[in-house]
Structures are given as C-alpha cells and as structure tokens.
Design a protein that fits this description.
Helix content is 75%, strand content 0%. It is mainly α. α1 (3-12) packs across α3. It is elongated, with a radius of gyration of 19 Å.
Amino acid sequence: MSRFVQSLRLWWAPRRIRDEGETPDYRFSLANERTFLAWIRTALALIGGGFAVDQFLPDLRWAVRVGLALALLAAGVLCALRAVNHWIRCERAMRRGEDLPVSRFPAVLSLTVAVVAVAMVVLVVFGRVG
C-alpha cells in the first residue's frame, strides 16, 4: 500500500498511529497540532479572501473576478487537505524517530498567493475594468 493511502486511512482512524513506533514527547505532538491549526487558519483565510474577492469587487470583469476568487478558494481547499496530511506524516515520523517530512507545498501556496496579490495590485493601480 502506498504511503499516501496509508496516510489517508489515518485521517479517519487516527488511533492507528499509536501502532507505529514509540510515543514521542507530548510537547512535540502538541506543537504538531498547533502547526495543523495554523494551516487550517490559513485555509480559512484563503477561502474567506476568495469569497471577498467575488462579493466585494463587482466592478471587475466577471472572468477576472472569478479567476482570482477561484485561485484563492482552490488554495484554501488544498491548504486544508494538506494540513491534515502533513499532521499525520509528522506524527508518524516522530513516532518512528525519522526526520520530519519536507514538502514543496509552502512554496506553491506562497507563489499562488503572490500571483493573486500582484494581480490585485495591478487592478488597483490601473483601475478596475468593468
């Protein structure tokens, strides 16, 4: 079974994580949980930003408004999904005494937010096109 499928199964049965390795210092598990919650807050902010773009910028062309909104909404969805996957992967690595997993996701998320932000700056500076 692939690592992704194993991780996905742990999303719905987190008690199974106890079957792997040894229990880490609880402070590390709590720090991992705080990181998870920070990712969830980020996901909620991105989703809220997507709705705000769609609702509060009616003067933008429909395609531009929807494109920016969908980019933020998609980033929020991916961020929420990545949060739980990263939490499981880190918890498993700590229990096994392995290095914590690395990911390109923070870079992808940052680039997505930066592209949307630059597009919005351009729209503000050069005026809204209706």
